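Materials and Methods. Structural model of Acyl-CoA synthetase. The 149-residue sequence of Acyl-CoA synthetase from Caballeronia choica was retrieved and submitted for structure prediction as follows.
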Amino acid sequence: MDRRASCRPRRWTIDVFATLRPGANTTVDELMSYVANRVDEAPAKPKWITLIAKMPMTNVGKIYKPELRMMAAQAVVTARVNEVWAESKEAAPCPRVRIDAQKGIEVLLDEPALGDRAAQVRERLRQVLAPLPIKTTVTFDVPAERNAS
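The predicted structure was written out as tokens:
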């Protein structure tokens, strides 16, 4: 058996980042419908489309794919965090998920709002995010007013 073939994921998904031309006005649902009517093969159809204001570019004018990968990773982590939050029925605000150049994807918890459950929630999120092939950190958010003191 070819070793390279065994390392491939069993199911590939198509994800699309798109920018609109100036003056254009459309929704993600309209774009998905447009693609669904023009792409016959189900595996070739995108699973999701994300509209972004500006496509990240390199200095030579090519699309900067590492930034798009980080944006896709952020979407995956956000979805997992939202699932955990919905299951836990936490009253605290849902954690923020952001891209950090050094830390990868960072999940920020509101420690004061979580109170004595903060460490438990942090550990649960770490367990859920650990299997992902994405560098993630789960930390406590330090509001700006606490940073200043």
